Amino acid sequence: MTADRGTHLSAAGRERIKDIRARAAELVDAGLPYPELDSRLAALAAEFKAAVVDDLEQQSADPRDGERDADADEAPA
After folding, report:
1. Distances from the Cα of 75 to the Cαs of 1, 28, 38, 69, in angstroms?
2. C or N terminus of the chain, fewer CB within 10 Å?
3. Is residue 1 pLDDT above 50, yes or no?
4. How far apart are CA 41 and CA 64, in angstroms?
């Protein structure tokens, strides 16, 4: 998925992502059995994606219609 060039998350969106990342880190450190950890991380991944899409849509950006930005989408050499 790409977004319009120059599109950024709002402060609220960044806070939401920060919270999701913190919860993911807590799960990794919780010592859960792998199937439970995998399930919970998959749910957080879906929440992460929804948070990004929702935030961009609230800003009237189209997270599904951006042009590929080669310098941002390619891994460094």
Report:
1. 15, 26, 26, 12
2. C
3. yes
4. 23
